[in-house]
Task: structure prediction
Amino acid sequence: MEEMLGDEWKRFNYRLQHPWILSEKTFDVLAKKSGFTNIEVKYYQLYGFSNFIRWLNERRPTGDKKLPFIDEVMDLQFRKKCE
Result:
């Protein structure tokens, strides 16, 4: 999405705290300090393609209410791209 929308996507998608609070390194450190071993971080895209289309239209988050023309295959491909 960044390729399509550039700085506007970055402003919407990446908050200042993300690199510090939600980084893979931060989770790794926190988990190790808590006594966990064999740590594997996996990424998950919560909101689907319908949310993205609505954001393009309204320029704000709108939740994940499904649009009728977005099928499961399109939604899955979008989520995979974001992860």
Remarks:
- The chain has two domains: 1-42, 43-83.
- The longest helix spans residues 72-82.
